[in-house]
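Structure in, sequence out. Go:
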């Protein structure tokens, strides 16, 4: 859809702005650079834009749809029939239009360069092998930039005048490779999107294929007409139209995945560590054993004291009986025996006091142990450290493909202190929005149950799922 909008905007710009581009090209170049920089900055910012604005305004810049449409206009200028109204508009400003297109391309190029670098870092961090599509895209993008930069530079009139016309024309032929690689780049990007399904994806492939194959076929037609000069062109036009239809249909059929080609849903990681019933029982048993041991120690201390008292009492009784017998035989020693009895009684009282004191001293630490056992320790739900979780960016209803999201969550004493997100499968402009919004919301709420709306809802939902998975792994 955004490519169709971009084609309409490009057609309007060429039709109504060709004169301005021709008379004041520098003003147009500055405007293109400002628009490109603003779109890039907005895409990287933490501002929450409406989803329609992110898709249809920022998207046509950062996703490269407008740049592609402008390059198509530059290409089609060489394929349109001579003398047509369209070629009269485009051809006089073709060089200026190519420079304008290159400046508009910058926001897309920088946005996805940062995204690809982040993906490469993610692949290395999690030991993931990059897909063939990703490697192909990186190589194609690199070649595209190596072709675009010199072609743009020699399009400036001041530089073009310093190059021989034949040499300049030979260099410009590299544009054919450039246009072909743009189409390859688009199809490689759309390959995983085809797996998701949806009429919008098929429509986009149809539109891109019709534009690029149409250019290729009608460029060949123009060369044929110029070199062979056929008397009638009606049959030739019919053949060219049929060729475009067949090539476009073939591209769509080629891009369609087989029945077994759709990737399986990755789902969230099933690694979860929770406190089991056995662990809970073990904690209760430890507490019970501590309490029982304290009770046994207390009882043991009390029994020892009692035995000591009883032993002393027995000794006292024996000594008293002996004194009574001696008093019957020797009255004169009666007073002395009474004095001895008093001394023994005093001694027994001292022993009893000592036993009671010893019992109190033994009971005191037992009470302290019981009190310490009764006080509950701080129980944390999560382990400290950094835990990695995976989630998926859910596809729209009725679609099978889901992109994987990784989350590194750092926890300290049940407090989420840091969150790092990685989106190896999502588009750069979407994942940036989710990455800016979601970690702050989760750390502020100290919960993964937060709002996912941020202009990139699907990517945000995948990020939240990844954080939840990391938290489940962190549980004790």
């Amino acid at each position: 859809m955004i490519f169709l909008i971009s084609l309409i905007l490009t057609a309007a710009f060429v039709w109504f702005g060709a004169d301005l581009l021709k008379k004041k090209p520098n003003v147009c170049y500055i405007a293109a650079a400002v628009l490109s920089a603003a779109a890039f900055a907005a895409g990287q910012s933490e501002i929450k834009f409406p989803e329609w604005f992110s898709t249809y305004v920022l998207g046509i810049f950062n996703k490269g749809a407008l740049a592609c449409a402008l390059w198509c206009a530059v290409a089609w200028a060489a394929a349109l029939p001579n003398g047509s109204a369209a070629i009269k508009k485009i051809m006089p400003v073709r060089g200026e239009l190519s420079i304008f297109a290159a400046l508009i391309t910058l926001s897309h190029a920088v946005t996805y360069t940062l995204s690809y670098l982040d993906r490469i870092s993610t692949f290395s961090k999690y030991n993931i092998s990059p897909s063939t599509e990703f490697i192909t895209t990186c190589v194609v993008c690199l070649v595209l930039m190596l072709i675009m930069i010199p072609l743009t530079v020699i399009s400036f009139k001041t530089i073009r005048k310093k190059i021989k016309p034949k040499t300049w024309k030979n260099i410009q032929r590299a544009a054919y490779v450039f246009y072909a690689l743009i189409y390859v780049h688009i199809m490689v990007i759309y390959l995983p999107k085809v797996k998701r399904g949806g009429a919008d994806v098929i429509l986009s492939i149809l539109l891109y294929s019709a534009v690029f194959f149409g250019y290729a076929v009608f460029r060949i037609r123009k060369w044929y007409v110029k070199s062979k000069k056929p008397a009638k062109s009606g049959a030739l036009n019919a053949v060219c139209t049929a060729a475009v239809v067949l090539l476009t249909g073939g591209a769509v059929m080629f891009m369609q995945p087989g029945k077994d080609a759709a990737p399986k849903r990755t789902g969230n990681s099933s690694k979860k560590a929770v406190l089991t019933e056995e662990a809970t029982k073990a904690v209760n048993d430890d507490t019970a054993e501590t309490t029982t041991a304290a009770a046994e120690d207390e009882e043991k201390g009390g029994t020892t004291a009692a035995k000591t008292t009883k032993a002393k009492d027995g000794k006292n009784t024996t000594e008293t009986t002996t004194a009574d017998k001696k008093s019957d035989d020797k009255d004169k020693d009666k007073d002395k025996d009474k004095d001895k009895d008093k001394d023994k009684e005093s001694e027994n009282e001292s022993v009893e006091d000592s036993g009671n004191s010893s019992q109190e001293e033994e009971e005191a630490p037992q009470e302290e142990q019981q009190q310490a056992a009764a006080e509950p320790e701080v129980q944390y739900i999560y382990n400290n450290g950094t835990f990695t979780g995976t989630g998926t960016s859910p596809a729209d209803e009725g679609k099978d493909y889901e992109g994987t999201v990784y989350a590194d969550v750092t926890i300290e004493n049940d407090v989420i202190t840091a969150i790092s997100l990685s989106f190896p499968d999502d588009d750069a402009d979407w994942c940036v929005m989710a990455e800016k919004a979601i970690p702050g919301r989760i750390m502020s709420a100290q919960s993964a149950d937060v709002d996912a709306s941020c202009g990139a809802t699907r990517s945000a939902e995948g990020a939240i799922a990844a954080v939840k998975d990391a938290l489940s792994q962190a549980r004790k």
